[in-house]
Structures are given as C-alpha cells and as structure tokens.
Amino acid sequence: DGGMNVVSDSLREPPRFKPAPPRFPPATQTRAGFGDRFYFSFGAPVDLADVDPKDKDACEEVYQKLKGDVEGEINWLLEARVRDPNRDFITRQLKERVMNLDPQPKEVKAGPLKGNFIRSCGRRAPSFPLE
Fold it and tell me: Whole-number mean pLDDT of the chain?
C-alpha cells in the first residue's frame, strides 16, 4: 500500500524520556555523595626488621599494634571528614571558582606550552588544619 512500516511510524516523533533524578546526590557537610573529598592517611612507617617471622608471640604483638594504629587512623579520618569546612561540594566549587579568578595570566616555564600564557586554575579550597 506504499505506507510506512511499523518502525517508521514510531520514528515520526522523537522518543520522550521522563527525567530521572541523579542517584548520587552532591556531597554536603553531613552526607557523602557526588564530589565528596577523599580522606586518606598513611600513618607512621613500621619497621619489621627486628621481628622474627617464626616468633608467633612477636608477630601477634606487632599485628595487634598495627591493627590499633589503623583503626585509630580510620577514626581520625572519619572525624576529620565531619570537621572539614570545605566538604560541601557546591560550596567548595564556588569557593574554588572565586579563588581562581586571576586577572593576570601566568607564563608557562617548561614543557610543550613553554613561553605561552595561561590563567591559573590550580588553586583548591584548603583543607582543615591538621591537629
């Protein structure tokens, strides 16, 4: 009959999709989310040179100390995350944009862009003071 087939009929109007809210909301001061900072700490180095790997008591002692140290670092990081004044994603982004409004371009000193001028965008919202 010269008419359109079923697929062509369905393409007369573009498909419509219902907007979906983001599954991962932006991070805020009290809630993890998109754009949250990563908090990490390496702790103190551990010297195992004097520990005999065949001495089970010495190994258990070192293990318990390391376990306590790691748990202490994790607890400190969890507390630090709550105290971080720049954790809120939107506020931090705004602060970084304002901090990077630099009217004076900087000259690139090395690399393939050497001699060119760019506007700096490397300043980030500061972290909280370490105690």
Answer: 80
